[in-house]
Design brief:
mainly alpha; about 70% helix
């Protein structure tokens, strides 16, 4: 349930962009230069670039569901017991350890395609070509944008999943399935 809720929330328009906890920020040293770029008059280019990265993640994240469901199906009784007896984010940690690499491999091509549709590369090129004269450190800086967006999208997914897990563990109302109610003693 937590996975479905997290993926559904993130795959909506502004699922990433509208949530400061998971918003995908510019990569590497560019993240530290955002304020400077905006002061030099490049706010619209920075905003367009950030929006395009977040839209790419929002468009691709729904593809994560089958991988996480597969991890659930392959869970052993011992895994389930460790999760039940573990801390507030034991299930999230389990899923992250079992699915992160598979999700990266699956989502990266999806994110690359989505970045092409949302104009991430074009926004990056517009930003760097316009801003290099004002912020020389951008010259020659060529981060792997697909990798950055993929990693950031997955990290955001696991942030949301941890929050959903904590709700389920603490709040009986969040235990919306019969199985969850049975496991947590309702």
């Amino acid at each position: 349930m937590g996975t479905e809720r997290a993926i559904e929330a993130l795959s909506q328009t502004d699922g990433y962009m509208g949530d400061s906890r998971v918003r995908i920020q510019p990569p590497g040293m560019l993240a530290g230069a955002v304020g400077t770029l905006k002061r030099f008059g490049f706010e619209s280019q920075v905003n367009a670039f950030e929006l395009s990265m977040n839209r790419a993640a929002e468009n691709a994240i729904s593809q994560a569901t089958p991988v996480v469901l597969n991890a659930i199906e392959s869970m052993t009784l011992a895994d389930a017991q460790r999760i039940y007896q573990g801390g507030d984010t034991a299930a999230t940690e389990y899923f992250k350890s079992r699915t992160f690499e598979d999700l990266r491999v699956l989502l990266r091509p999806q994110i690359e395609a989505s970045m092409a549709q949302t104009g991430t590369t074009a926004a990056w090129q517009a930003l760097t070509s316009a801003a290099t004269s004002s912020v020389p450190m951008l010259a020659g800086y060529t981060p792997d944008l697909a990798d950055h967006v993929t990693e950031s999208a997955l990290n955001g997914l696991f942030v949301m999943l941890a929050e959903e897990e904590q709700k389920i563990r603490r709040d009986p109302v969040a235990r919306s399935t019969d199985l969850l109610k049975q496991v947590f003693g309702l």
